């Protein structure tokens, strides 16, 4: 393994891992790749023109991962489902004295990481950022941006409106999230989301309101910890919401019968029936992300428009790794993208990736 590979991407040959490696190459950040299949890693590195400075096939154990991570400065973890595989990687990264980034969208995993590794990360002065990705980076950045401009706002509703097809790993994670309790930040504490009753949300730029449901968002864990924030709820809005809600109710009912056996079953079903999506077409993957802040009748909205969420995840990870290498982070510990690197800075890199934003007062 080359000593100048300051970043290592674990899970480099998957859909999102490839986008991250391509972004690191574009930024001229020296990186290594790790995973479980040496042949895949070598073949992909050939596609990259030999850009990776090192390749490691590694068993998924804390000891082996620590050995491979040692000597690097930043670990980017792209191996999902994170609830199954993620904690070993976080522990190995911190044991190897590395900063850690991942692309999870699983709130229960994020909560576990915050509870189990928060103190260790602070003591080691390391940054641990879960969900350094389209879920839940832009929404939190937009909420922080409003908070900085309008400090009196104390209640936030954050809405994600995606298009496009999720990857295999994202779909596996979605099924795991569906059968677990999610939380929102209500009156200064985490409260379980009760049921899946869908609502309608008016999205700026849309003629008709969209069906939406309350989801377990990362913002309810990190942004909610900011002083003076009383309420944080996160929603997904899409025409597909009614169909998704029915699926979740079925999956939750099955969970009461099969328990944890449903997770590996869901993973296998996705592998059998789901296909890796093609490269993102900007016209087919447009999205809106909205953060609405309120207080005593006053309401401000920061809305983001863009496309290609997975490409944006790659950009966020490449950019965040580069900032960590430069020591350009604002805090340490288990924190969000905006807390680590700043809300305005996050919105600016999103703008460079083709996302626009505006504030509606």
Overview of the molecule:
By secondary structure, the chain is an alpha/beta fold. The chain has twelve helices and 16 strands. α1 (15-26) packs across α10 (309-325), α3 (62-69) crosses α4 (82-95) and α6 (137-149) packs across α12 (343-352). The longest helix has 18 residues, at 107-124. It is globular and about 55 Å long. The mean pLDDT is 91.
Give the arrangement of secondary structure elements.
Elements: E1 7-10, H1 15-26, E2 31-35, H2 38-47, E3 55-57, H3 62-69, E4 74-77, H4 82-95, E5 99-102, H5 107-124, E6 127-129, H6 137-149, E7 155-161, H7 168-178, E8 183-186, E9 189-192, E10 199-201, E11 210-215, E12 231-237, H8 241-258, H9 262-273, E13 286-295, E14 298-307, H10 309-325, E15 333-335, H11 337-341, H12 343-352, E16 356-360
């Amino acid at each position: 393994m080359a000593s100048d590979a300051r970043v290592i991407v674990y899970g480099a040959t998957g859909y999102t891992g490839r986008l991250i490696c391509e972004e690191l190459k574009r930024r001229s950040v020296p990186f290594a790749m790790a995973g479980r299949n040496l042949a895949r890693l070598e073949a992909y590195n050939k596609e990259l023109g030999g850009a990776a400075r090192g390749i490691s096939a590694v068993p998924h154990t804390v000891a082996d991962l620590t050995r491979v991570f040692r000597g690097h400065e930043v670990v980017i973890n792209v191996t999902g489902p994170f609830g199954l595989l993620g904690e070993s990687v976080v522990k190995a990264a911190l044991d190897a004295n590395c900063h850690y980034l991942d692309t999870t969208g699983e709130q229960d995993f994020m909560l576990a990481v915050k509870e189990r590794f928060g103190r260790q990360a602070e003591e080691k002065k390391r940054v641990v950022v879960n969900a350094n990705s389209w879920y839940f980076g832009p929404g939190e950045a937009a909420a922080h941006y409003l908070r900085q401009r309008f400090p009196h706002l104390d209640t936030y509703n954050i809405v994600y409106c995606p298009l496009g097809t999720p990857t295999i790993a994202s779909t596996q994670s979605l099924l795991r999230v569906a059968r677990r309790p999610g939380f929102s930040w209500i009156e200064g504490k985490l409260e379980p989301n009760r049921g899946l009753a869908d609502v309608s949300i008016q999205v700026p730029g849309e003629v008709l309101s969209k069906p939406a449901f309350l989801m377990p968002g990362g913002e309810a864990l990190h942004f909610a910890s900011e002083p003076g924030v009383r309420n944080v709820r996160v929603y997904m809005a899409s025409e597909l919401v009614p169909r998704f809600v029915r699926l979740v109710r079925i999956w939750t009912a099955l969970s009461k019968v099969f328990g944890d056996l449903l997770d590996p079953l869901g993973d296998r079903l996705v592998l059998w029936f789901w296909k890796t999506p093609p490269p993102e077409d900007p016209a087919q993957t447009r999205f809106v992300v909205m953060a609405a802040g309120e207080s005593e009748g006053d309401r401000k909205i920061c809305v983001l428009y863009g496309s290609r969420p997975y490409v944006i995840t790659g950009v966020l990870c490449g950019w965040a790794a580069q900032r960590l290498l430069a020591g350009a982070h604002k805090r340490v510990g288990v924190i969000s993208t905006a807390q680590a690197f700043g809300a305005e800075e996050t919105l600016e890199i999103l703008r460079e990736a083709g996302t626009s934003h505006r504030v509606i007062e």
